[in-house]
Amino acid sequence: MDVLEIDNSFKEFKTIEEVELKQCEEWSVSEMTLKEIEYNTFFEQFMLRNVPCILKNVSFNWECSKKWILRNQINYEYLIESYGDLVVPVADCNKISYNSQCKCEMKMKDFIHYLRKSERTQLLYLKDWHLKNVRPTDNFYEVPKVFGLDWLNEYAQDNNEDDFRFVYIGPQNSWTPLHSDVYSSYSWSVNVFGRKEWTLFPPGEERKLKDSLGNLPLMYNEKSFPNIQHLKIIQESGDAIFVPSGWYHQVVNLQDTISINHNWINSCNIVFMWKSLHENLLTIENEIEHLKDTPEFHDQCQLILKSLFGIDLERFKKFIIHIAQKRLHQLEEKSLKSFDRFSLGKNQILFDLNKIHFVMNKLNLENYKIHNDLLSIIQKKLFK
What positions does the domain JmjC occupy (predicted)? Predict the structure, then answer.
């Protein structure tokens, strides 16, 4: 079992809300191999600072790189033989409805038959396929250690819920519209095969792209929006890209491409998630303020919050309480697994509890009550 540990006291780290973003002209996106960076370094330099990077040669030893790819081409026959009867989610990049790509489901073998055609009349993109959840014993990839502190998928596994682990397969020119990731999470994406072009916008730049109704364009066009800070990154086969919280991004497949993606939250960005959730809730409450005196006002706000942000307040509280209780237990049971093959060192556990304690206090200040007994226990562990 790999241990995730940080070197310094949890009190010494800055968090996202304490780090000022530079101008994009000052960014140079760091590139390195997994062998060249330790978990603690990635934790400090990228997750805490909330800046993107590229990790090279991540997937070459993965099982999917050996079985899904044959002689530098997608191994269509293997994919049909192994997964052909599974139903997969597919987006049509040429059909737009309500400012998003139209979705459908189809058998994997039918999608592969489409993909291998030399001439295609449609532009279909297999997206958000929960293959690891469907085939949990199929070890077709390995989570890089630097991405191992993953509360979202830890919580999902502990509670038998839908995960945040996805496979994407798309032809050349298929694309993902401009968006930020669910819950204002981090994401990582590894190209098993092919090339992608990413356009990333540091937090706040997306506001300059909105129209008078507050809508974002499906895709950013530099000619239409000059003087917008952004980064262009070409992701090669085998590369992992780290996309920080709150960075809007769009993606174009420059070749037929297969990728594996995770969304994840941890102690480095849980405050970012809370702030985003709270801002969304305040906006909703303001929008339907005319219903404030009705008995259904609170429930209606939470329903809208869940539909827009993906999670409501009660579920968010349940999420952080679960992680808090588990971390308290892990302080006593040092070998207890967190997510995947990873266990946590003491400093990492204390850092997690420190950030949970911070968010719980914020919830209490806003009258979204967290049980004070749990807060008291965490405080004793942190400051004994």
Answer: 132-281
301 lies in the same domain as 258 = no
| φ, ψ for residue 181, nearest 5 deg | -80, 155
Q: Give the other-Cβ count within 10 Å of 53's Cβ.
A: 20
Per-residue pLDDT of the chain (384 residues; tens, 9 = 90+): 899 999 875 656 655 555 555 555 566 789 999 999 999 999 999 999 999 999 999 999 999 999 999 999 999 999 999 999 999 999 999 999 988 999 999 999 999 999 998 788 899 999 999 999 999 999 999 999 999 999 999 999 999 999 999 999 999 999 999 999 999 999 999 999 999 999 999 999 999 999 988 899 999 999 999 989 999 999 999 999 999 999 999 999 999 999 999 999 999 999 999 999 999 999 999 999 998 999 999 999 999 999 999 999 999 999 999 999 999 999 888 667 788 899 999 999 999 999 999 999 999 888 888 777 888 888 888 877
Please give the sequence-ordered ranges of beta strands (E in DSSP) within the chain, or none if there are none.
Answer: 2-4, 30-33, 53-56, 69-70, 73-74, 87-97, 100-107, 124-129, 165-170, 175-179, 186-193, 196-201, 231-235, 240-243, 248-253, 257-264, 342-344
Q: Which two tokens stand for residue 377?
A: 């226990």
Minimal CA–CA distance to 203: which of 272, 283, 152?
272
CATH number at residue 39: 2.60.120.650
Q: Same domain, yes or no, for 205 and 85?
A: yes
Domain boundary among 264, 298, 319: 264
pTM (two decimals): 0.94
Show the domain range for 364: 270-383
Dihedrals phi, psi of 253, to nearest 5 degrees: -80, 115
Q: In Å, how far from its chain's centre is CA 182? A: 7
